[in-house]
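Ticket #4471: structure export looks truncated?
Reporter: QA, pipeline team
Priority: medium

Steps to reproduce: submit the single chain below to the structure queue and open the exported record.
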Amino acid sequence: MICSNLLNKTRTELEQIIENKKTPVLVYGSAVALLKDMAKGNTSTLQWLADRGYGKAPETVYQYIEDYSLTREEKEAAISELLDLRRQAAEEEQEEQKERDDV
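Actual output as written to the record:
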């Protein structure tokens, strides 16, 4: 409620809020940050206040999930292939290490 209220104030009204010694800290800090950002052309405080005051815009995420069901044999073959690749990479690494050690 505070956030949406601040977003509906004029610059003069925000300055009056800042000058008032009885302004709560949250309102004071938000008003100061909003005016400073406006002076710099920055919108981060404005975005923060809008997100809190009105809620973030919904984000639509589209997903496509394909069923990749494998038989037990296909799974075992895939695992075996990956283990072979891992073994080959380890052997190549050992050979390279021996070559470096020999130099």
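Status: closed, not a bug. The export was complete when the record was re-opened. Leaving a note from the reviewer for reference: The radius of gyration is 31 Å.
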